[in-house]
Amino acid sequence: MLKGKTPSLIGSSLGRPIKATAGRKCECSRCNTEIVKGAECYDVPQPQKPHSTTRRFCRMCFEAVLKKTKSDLGELQSLLG
Fold first, then answer.
1. Beta strands 54-57; 26-27: pairing state
2. How far apart are CA 22 and CA 78, in angstroms?
3. Which helix (H) or strand (E) holds 80?
4. pTM of the model
5. Choosing a second label site near 30 at 20 to 30 A (CA), which of 2, 18, 58, 74?
6. Which residues, listed in sequence order, are joined to residue 35 by a DSSP beta bridge?
7. Cα angle value 68/73/79 (rounded, 5°)
C-alpha cells in the first residue's frame, strides 16, 4: 500500500513556482526585459542558493518554461511505454 502524497518531479528540486506582483521595477531572469512595479510575474524558488533566492520570470518566459516542462514530462511518459 502506497503512503503519503505522490511527489512531483517539477516541485521537488526547485520548489513550487508562485504568481507574484512586482513590488518594484525588476528584470526577467530569462529575457532581461523590465518588469514594472505592479506587473504580474512568476517567482521560482531556488533552495540551493542562500536567503530564499528566486528566479523571476515575465509571463511570456514563464509560459515558455511551462511548455518546455510539459515537453520534458511527455518524453519521460513515453519511456514508460
1. unpaired
2. 38
3. helix 59-80
4. 0.77
5. 74
6. 26
7. 135
